[in-house]
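stuck on whats below:

***
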Amino acid sequence: MRRGRLPLTALRAFEAAGRLESVTRAAEELAVSQAAVSRQIRALEEDLGTRLFERLHRGLRLTEAGGRLQSALSTAFDGIDEALAEVATNRHEVLTVSADPSFAACLLAPSLALFQSRAPEADVVLNSDARIVDLATEGVTFAIRYAKDRDHWPRTEAKWLCNSRLTAYLSPALAGRLILDRPEALLPLPRLHEDSRDHWQSWFAAAGVQVAPDARGMLFNDSAVLLQAAIAGQGVALLDETFAEAAVARGDLIRPFATAIPAGAYWLVARSFARLSPGARDFAAWLQEVLRPGIISESFVKP
């Protein structure tokens, strides 16, 4: 098929429906009606003489031919989008970063001024959102994702940022009431929990202390909020070492024991690291530099 005859509207409709596995969601993305998307797909199938979708009771499923075409189109459209960004004459860059709320609050928000001074021609739009975003269709440069046991996501590339390791922290005022010579010394204190009350049992087991599962205690769904509760002296908390590093350096928290338990990792996700803009490359390098051990505490100690 010659380029001058390429059915670009139909190809866009098909690519969106195939990627999203939904005519409804494709119509929302393209700002057209469902009927219009369906018509374009049918016309494309007739033009090609082959079925691209299997119509199921509750959605669509790509045929083998449809899968090959959808993959090629997604790659091509991504490339066009990146090429347009590269040749744009406006040197002012906007980098949109979607980050886990805890990562955004504990690490990115306090440190972005450092990146801004390093790359003044680039502005960062920080979206604090636990939702898994589509980098291609939502105009997102990077996603920072937490995972316990995975290291890749469809149609993206991922680079390891840091491991998540949980250990015990408490305020200096609370620590002053105790003789912190062994992990058992923490047992009389209220234990603060994030997402699950099972983590403390795992931490005490790693420290060589057997305790019964916790049935009570304050439960938080966000590490940044848990961090503030620990600083306020509400109890002893299991916090990510990286998140708590600056608070320890400022004297807001104490880490009494070295014991830590693994809890997954954080990843920097992009459509293609080889095709990043200069500002995006600077951001990726800066973020990996900031997360080196000790850098955070050096950067955020109160004067």
Summary: The first strand starts at residue 53 and ends at 56.
